Amino acid sequence: PLTARDFQSSQINDWCPGCGDHGILRSLENALASLECSPDQVAVFGGIGCSGKTPYYLNSYGVHTLHGRLLPYATGAKLANPDLTVIAVGGDGDGLSIGAGHFVNAGRRNLDMTYILFNNGVYGLTKGQASPTLRQGEQTRSMPQGNMQTHLNPLLLALASGYTWVGRGYSYDVKLLTRLIVEAVRHPGIAFLDVLQPCPVYNNLQTREWYGERIYSLQAEGHDAVISDAGDEEGNRKKGEEAMNRAREWGDRIPLGVLYQTRLPTYEEQVPSLQAGPLATREVQPLTADEIASLQAELV
Ligand code: SF4
Q1: What pTM value is reported for the model?
Q2: What pLDDT, in 10s, does the model give residues 176-202?
Q3: Ligand 1 site: residues with CB under 6 angstroms?
Q4: Helices then strands, each counted (H, E), the chain
Q5: 175 phi and psi, to 5 degrees?
């Protein structure tokens, strides 16, 4: 059996002491071990920012991609080899500003992969400017004035974009986060996991203490996230609305757990050319001169 240690790399980790990123990394290692994913069957794609370094710190295949482009990379890998467990990891600045178009369209596409958002409200790598999840008017340690822009709600955006599994974890609750990553990876379709990740260096507002007074478990309160395929249309509509209502909660109460889960055909299941097996492992058949000439006649 695999253990978390099998997913630890020998790279030196330079995240700040106390950063929430450490808890997410531990949870990923635990989750992949309990899923019994062999490291050579896992591909992790990081964006730009502190969280973008995650692929270096995990013993698996991985790419530190371009700013906001982790989802196109992950999409390409999944299409080339649907047998891979593909996980995209990136910050809220990366995924909800420059990467917002990819975030929305990955939801519509419903490939069987997982997107984990390291959500800390700031651009930590570049000294703590406001990111898209920081509320308007909030002023963190390194900002000269309050945030002028309104915020984006990643859970609401994920629900509106068609993600078929939507949840939220907290980086200091490794047990819950491990369980949520396992569920997200097991879900057949695109899973979005928002992780509240305190940045103790630059975000002095959303701290461990601040979250500690507000977070609660959705499942402990009986929230039923699963959309049934048994045809209860009215019940499913209410569950969708309830997921939206819970996603709006912030301030006094902040929900953790699975908000929404449904089973729809994945992109891979619908692409005819993928039904014969992964492109990555299929033998390449060179075209004959006659076949090339015939193609040219048809297309040129
Ligand atoms: Fe973590 Fe913030 Fe340090 Fe980046 S700057 S490693 S997010 S504590």
Answers
A1: 0.95
A2: 999 999 999 999 999 999 999 999 999
A3: 15-16, 19, 21, 50, 120, 124-125, 199-202
A4: 11, 10
A5: -65, -50
